[in-house]
Amino acid sequence: MSTHELTAPQSKAGSGRPRRERPRVMGAGKQLHAGPLTYVILSVFALVSLAPLVWTAIAASRTDRRLAETPPPLWFGGNLFKNMDRAWEEAGLGKAMFNTMFVAGTITVSTVLFATLAGFAFAKLRFRFSGLLLLLTIGTMMIPPQLAVVPLYLWMADLGWSNQLQTVILPTLCTAFGTFFMRQYLVQALPSELIEAARVDGASSLRVVWHVVFPAARPAMAVLGLLTFVFAWNDFLWPIIALNQENPTVQVALNSLGTGYVPDQAVIMAGALLGTLPLLIAFLLFGKQIVGGIMQGAIKG
Amino acid sequence: MSSSKEALAHPASSADAAPGDQPGAAGRANGRGTAPPGSSSWRSRLYRWDMKASPYAFIAPFFIVFGAFSLVPLLYTAWYSLHNVQLANLDGQTWTGLDNYKNLLSSDFFWNALWNTFTIGVISTVPQLLMAIGLAHLLNYKLRGSTVWRVVMLTPYATSVAAATLVFVLLYSWDGGMINWLLEFVGIDPVNWRESDWGSQFAVSSIVIWRWTGYNALIYLAAMQAIPADLYESAAIDGANRWQQFIHVTIPQLRPTILFTVVVSTIGATQLFGEPLLFGGVSGSKGGSGHQYQTLGLYMYDQGWIIGNLGKASAIAWSMFLILLIVAVIQLLVSRRLRKSQ
């Protein structure tokens, strides 16, 4: 019942070094020290992962005309802020960034809250059909979003909501992934005795949630929040149907750029850079937690 | 457990001290010890009702959102797919039975889109997962700065479909593009990545591969770290070298995870939309001048919102779903067969 138990799964997934003991037999495959070749291959992978992003910044600092010439530029030019400014104003990235902050922020808060409640119920509470409902929740992840967009579009038009942000917020207020993620975490991280002890003292369910579940779930909630924010920031299909350039999210504005809204490649690259920057910063700050969250969510198998 | 009595005796003082540091104590302290079941019949009835109803209340938000924005629309989509629904004339919906579906089955564009979805799906998924397993194997070594490596491999995942595709469009451009320039460097003729059939499909697939390889590698890495070390030790005692251990221990142990990633990637590949849309630029919804990379998702968007035939778009959406279900059943049967033969 110590706090050690509660944080154990998180630190395991996060630090990624769960086993420190040396293999006892020579060549026993696991956790061997990497040789130079491993570092070389990993460096190639790292280069391929990062090069397009670095090159985006290079292209964004050049002019449209320079980008049409061969060979392509390999180092930074002097137009970065000018292009960013044009992307911010002309391509509507400025408004789009604020819109997306609001949309992704709202979705993140509500998904984390609702998913924690549902995940707790599935992990620790007994009720009829709980197994079936959990299976159903997982099954919903298989449904392509394309199956909902035609009626949603017609309804939103009927309500006079076209081009308003709530159209892209409401459908994502809680996700099956989030629910399952929290359930998997709470099954192992929340000792049932804690809940029973609170029950014996007559705590209501809401009290149990507030004083037992939330404190225990906090690390997983933070990770789910990060994953949800990335997902919401990058959501594409429904936003480009529901919104247009007058009131865009970042992805809608980038889609407009891609279809010739501002026909200047350097500005387009500046837009792509601006629209990605907040998430890159998030990765810089919380990369370890995000990696841990993805690995932790994966163990479900 | 000793603190529980104190909490009962001095509810106020311990309630002040407890919250935050010890969740269990906080819960008990703030329960104030006042309502053991049965202390008053009203209280106990409330308590029993709370126990019974709250699980459903907790899962309700998810199911309400799912019902309102997925399940009901999904059924409506089926309904619309049996109607003639035009974007330009939304009030004039007429029943057409299975016409939209018959229309699809006799349309070359539908079969073309289906085939493209399949080929792009294969080109993007198979190399991606193979590379991810290899990458995970490397990341599983004891590395200096292991966290940094992992975060770097995951950065493409932070890049949205739209941003990534805009960049790749420029990298793949016919002249002045980075990739053709590099090819020329090693003596290969430039490829017309926009217009050629396989070139454009490869280019679209490469965006998917770039964005998802690191993500899948982390999933495999998590599974690899869960493999018990003694399996490797006994394999080593039996004289298996590293490669043999990888083939005979790692891969079999990863089988459930591989199946999981195959299923997830298949779902993703069936819905592929943003990459080909933006790769096509101004006329992106056509999937290239010869529809050479028009996927099902793109075809649906084109029919529904560019041409304005929402009834047909609904029929395409349901066809996608049915195809996905068929593929899922096949994958289930294959995995069951594999498990039996093991």
UniProtKB/TrEMBL annotation, chain B:
Q: How does it sit in the membrane?
A: Multi-pass membrane protein
Question: Low complexity: which segments have biased composition?
Answer: 9-38
Gene3D superfamilies tied to this protein: MetI-like
Ranges annotated as spanning the membrane: 53-76, 113-139, 151-174, 315-334
Any one GO biological process: transmembrane transport
Report the locations given in the UniProt record.
Cell membrane
Q: Domain ABC transmembrane type-1, which positions? A: 114-331
Q: Keywords in UniProt for this one?
A: Cell membrane, Membrane, Transmembrane, Transmembrane helix, Transport
User: Per the record, GO CC terms?
Assistant: plasma membrane
Q: Which Pfam families match?
A: BPD_transp_1 (PF00528)
The main location is membrane
| InterPro entries referenced in this protein's UniProt entry, alphabetically | ABC_transporter_permease, MetI-like, MetI-like_sf
Q: Where is this region: Disordered?
A: 1-42
Indicate the family of this protein.
Belongs to the binding-protein-dependent transport system permease family.
Which protein, by its recorded name, is this?
Answer: Sugar ABC transporter permease
Which source organism?
Streptomyces cyaneochromogenes
